Amino acid sequence: MHSHHPLELLFPGLAVSRWQETSIKTKEYNCIAWAGSEDHDDVWWWPNRAAYWPEGVPLNTSVEAFISAYRTLGYEVCDGGDPEPGLEKVALYVGDDGQVTHAARQLDSGCWTSKLGALEDIEHELRGVEGERYGQVAQFLSRPRLSQE
Amino acid sequence: MTNSVVDHQDMPICDHRKAPVSNVAEQLERKYLQRKEEWISVGKLGFSIKESDFLGRAEKLERPSWLERGYGWRRFYSANDELEATERVLRIWTNPSIRPMQISWEFFHSEAKFFDAATFEELSSRVVAHHLAAAKEAERAMRQRFRDLLEVWRRDVAILSSLDRIVMHEAYQQIIGMGEKVVPLILEEFNKEIDHWPWALEAITGENPVPNNMRGRLKMVRVCWVEWGKARGLL
């Protein structure tokens, strides 16, 4: 049970699903970088001139802009988040305004890994971090799996 | 002293004016003369200042008026805050070469009365002590405000990835609004812990020492800003 964990107060979905912390807190990288690759643990991705953003990708927070950003890493749009052998998947979360708020990456196990802002990485179920803060999953992308977790 | 209209042209001047006039004093005098029109426009005392009037005259006319109306020291020294006022006070009152600035007896006595001083040396040391104490308190208050805003900002943006929302947070914007004097505090904090300070530092200073290929890599970005701060004596 994690009923008293501070993260479950922020993300009530975690309280009714399986999840675990997998890192310490750090501000060196964010969810967008971490979802793109486990190697991206030293950079903050965001369409803002004070952050990293792939060259030539529109500087806005639309789903389309994020799809373009992940295309630079070899991801393409796909239909769903069910695990598929040999594919690595990313889920984009959007808020009520349709703008991207968060991203998560699927692990071999079928679980998802998220970096929560400046807080920890967690492994969680896809819907575990949906809600008031990150909104809902709106888009999936996939690429051939490059790494072995 | 009173604010009544008197003939200040014949007022005696402090002996200090006999000392050589330094460049600094000349610069100060020029500055005061440049501000004379503003003082005239204030017009609180109803004096008609002639072109031939000089520094000491403008001071002796306007200083008591500002004090009485609560404009205070900062206004008198054209400073934005106590730290800046103190810097200017120190330049004026601790540098012997500044003494020859044309301080009238009237001005001297009003200051001496305010600070309960009998001699110029006593007056200058008390003026400086007064402003140093005020500056110390102002700095303490500024540090506390920075800490308070920092705590709110970090608490509220902890789960955000959106750099837009992180830097547009009200507390972060208030930190930026504190202006250049907060830059050393930001650099000090940045040196201790990486955080999204580049946006604020660039907004305040108008500078950006971070190469494009380092954007988003806060560990490396921090090194750039810390070196920038050290080179300018801010850290």
Reported for the largest beta sheet of chain B, the result is: none
Question: What global shape of chain A is seen?
Answer: globular
The multimeric state of the shown protein is heterodimer
Low-confidence stretches of chain A: none
Q: What is the overall pLDDT average of chain A?
A: 93
Give the neighbour order of strands across the main sheet of chain A: 1-6-5-4-3-7-2
Shape descriptor of chain B reads elongated
Biggest sheet overview of chain A: 7 strands, antiparallel
Helix/sheet category of chain B: mainly alpha
What low-confidence regions of chain B span 5 or more consecutive residues with pLDDT below 50?
1-29, 35-71, 98-102
Give the amount of beta strand of chain B, in percent: under 5%
| C-alpha Rg of chain B (nearest Å) | 23 Å
The chain pair with the largest interface is:
A-B, 28 and 22 residues
Number of beta-strand segments of chain A: 7
- Helix run count of chain A: 4
The string of secondary-structure elements of chain A, in order, is HHEHHEEEEEE
Label this structure with key terms.
heterodimer; A: 149 residues; alpha+beta; 7 strands; globular; B: 235 residues; mainly alpha; 61% helix; 0% strand
Would you summarize the structure shown here?
The complex is a heterodimer of chains A (149) and B (235). Helices cover 16% and strands 26% of the residues of chain A.
What does this protein structure show overall?
The complex is a heterodimer of chains A (149) and B (235). The model of chain A has no long low-confidence stretch (mean pLDDT 93). By secondary structure, chain A is an alpha+beta fold. The longest helix of chain A has 9 residues, at 63-71. In chain A, 16% of the residues lie in helices and 26% in strands. The two termini of chain A are 25 Å apart. Chain B is an all-alpha fold. In chain B, helix 7 packs antiparallel against helix 9 (170-177) and helix 9 (170-177) packs parallel to helix 11 (198-205). Chain B starts with 22 loop residues before the first helix and ends with a helix. Mean pLDDT of chain B is 69; it is low at 1-29, 35-71 and 98-102. The A-B interface holds A 10, 27-28, 30-33, 42-46, 48-53, 61, 101-103, 115-119, 133 and B 154, 157-164, 167, 193-196, 198-199, 202, 215-219.
